[in-house]
Amino acid sequence: MERLDQHIESLIFTCEQPISLKEIKKCLDEVFEVKLKESQLLEAVERLKAQYAQEQYSLEIIEISGGYQFLTKGAFHGTVGTYLQQTTNRKLSKTAMETLAIIAYKQPVPKSELEKIRGVSCDYAIQKLLEKELVDIKGRSDAPGRPLLYGTSQRFMDYFGINSTKDLPKLKDFKQPDSEIGERAP
To answer: pLDDT digits over 111-123, tens only?
Structure first.
């Protein structure tokens, strides 16, 4: 396989979303007209990951969302963040973030449960999350009226840099700091 690493590197670079090993294999099997072993591909990916882990590169290959993707190294997040703030104004509102958090932890969840938890209508927030493709319709509930069920999308995983919902922070991760001023409310 001539320049296998570079072929894989070009696929990872070209894809907007993480590309799975299965997708890489399918493409390269056709290109090389031979069945490649997954172990060969994994070795090549590991060589690329090691190469980009070196200090001279600002990017790294990360396994995310069931595939591989180029991402900026942490040392450069500030620079990229500043640039993105200068060029985009598409932040999620507090309402949308709250709604997204409930969907992420309770999915699949009907709108009625979201509204019960939040105490207000979630129509607008859900619409914005659907437009930004952070939330998908996962089906219908068996409850009366068969309401739609909402869950997080693949784009949500990519946006927050997680492989699955199992990677979401647990409640214990939000522990109160040990050094608080004043007394807790009853």
So the answer is: 999 999 999 999 9
